[in-house]
Amino acid sequence: MENTGKPASVLTARAAGLVGCTRCGRVHDQGVAFCLRCGSALQSRDTLALQKVWAWWWAGLIAYIPANIYPMLRMTQFGRPHESSIMGGVIDLAQHGDLWVAFVVFFASIIIPIGKFIAIAYLAWSVKKGIRTRDVGRLHMYEIVEFIGRWSMIDVFVVAILTALLQMDFIVTVSPGIAAFSFTVSVVCTMISAQSFDPRTIWDTEKETPRV
Amino acid sequence: MNPIHAHKDKLSPNGLIACPTCDALHKETDVPIGMAAKCVRCGHTLLRPRKSAMTQILMLAATAFVLMCAGIFFPFLELQAGGRITRSSVFDAVLAFSDGVMLPVAILLGALIIVVPLVRFMALIYVFAPMSLGHYPARYAPQAFRLAERLSPWSMAEIFIVGVGVALIKVTGLATVLIGPAFWAFCGLVVVTVLKDTFMCKLTVWKTLENRRLS
User: Fold this and answer.
1) Are A110 and A178 in the same domain?
2) Which of A38, B80, B102, B151 has the CB geometry, 3.0–4.6 Å to B97, for a possible disulfide?
């Protein structure tokens, strides 16, 4: 039940001439369009998955560049404006001595997005090449990417909360910079990119399942 | 779960489960309550039935809904500096982006923090209330449950709470910050959401929905 035995001998729904539903697991004969249990559209493999993954990946990457160059947040203190980019905000936090918080923001807005770009690219590339090594490892990589991607939104939320709190009548006022916009776009694009990936293709090989 | 090995004959789709993440076929067996059935190939949990899971999920979804309503309208942070007090609610945070080119961001934030979680909780209540109080699911229960599942990656209330934490630390040097009731409502929401997600076994819910369907 739990241990993985001999993974090579496992029969997939596709190899058996059937289609499995990715939402509820019900198995159907090939040619059935919608799942009889949950109503989701059935597809043995999403043949356009890699195209969608790369399209959203590039969109996310392009939006990520201005997100790092332009200011995330504009702070006016005693009439003096001070703009800080994502990295600038991390450095400000670290200089104030809040190393732990600086680390959280650094992790959420720099390490997670970059790691995500690399991980999705590697997964898409390995599936395209039909590489069959460390399958379970690659699945875990995919699950981590899917789970952790949303957390990049922290920095945008922080900017929104600061803007709401520090309004006009205070000594310090904060307004969001244009990078907040491009960063949000980048996070949304990479989330859709990760969701477009079909993890079932991790196990497919040329021999067993001819790729369309 | 018992895997299906290479087969000569054409298999009948009935009585089989395909792993949603890796497509491996398994024979469908009754899993005892409290046990988990995992995919032999990728280790994905296929079935994990729990005792009175329906009622638990219903109660947690209802709690989350109430907490969410409280969290939106009560102030979540209060700032005191130089004799002035500003209160801001979650609503104000969303509206922070509402001018000019940032308007799409404001709409998106409103969706991620407020609308998506609320719709998700309502859909779950709609699915589980009739089944847990009576027996048969409501008419559009499969559609509602599918919506709830599709929305789940976009429900970001818990990320918002961590954002509040970071913002608090950035502000503490400038003013005195008091934490409002909405902050605690959101913290409760995070706990309830985590519990709800661990109690819910999707494949079991789908099977139950199918078995109890009015035909």
Assistant:
1) yes
2) B102
Write the residue in B13, B146, B170 that is nearest to A29 by C-beta.
B13
Q: Which of A25, A44, A63 is the last residue of a domain?
A: A44
Identify all chain A residues contacting B84, using CB atoms and an 8 Å cutoff: 169-170
Lowest-pLDDT choice from A33-42, A160-169, B86-95: A160-169
A165 touches chain B (CB under 8 A): yes
How far apart CA A200 and CA A211 sit, in angstroms, is 12
> Does residue A211 belong to any structural domain of this protein?
no
Tell me the average pLDDT of chain A.
84
pLDDT band of A168, cuts 50, 70, 90: low
CB atoms within 10 A of CB A3: 7
Tokens of B111: 């969706």
Q: Name the closest residue on chain A to residue B75, using Cα atoms.
A: A165
Residues of chain B with Cβ-Cβ distance to A172 below 8 Å are 174
Burial class for A45, CB neighbours closer than 10 Å (0-12, 13-18, 19+): middle
- The pair phi, psi for residue B16, each rounded to 5°, is -120, 155
Query: What integer pLDDT is reported at residue B164 of this predicted model?
Result: 85
Distance (Å, rounded) from C-alpha B92 to C-alpha B158? Answer: 18
Number of domains in chain A: 2
Same domain flag for A90 and A193: yes
Mean pLDDT within A94-115: 86
Q: Comparing B69 with A133, which gets the higher pLDDT? A: B69
B215 DSSP assignment: -
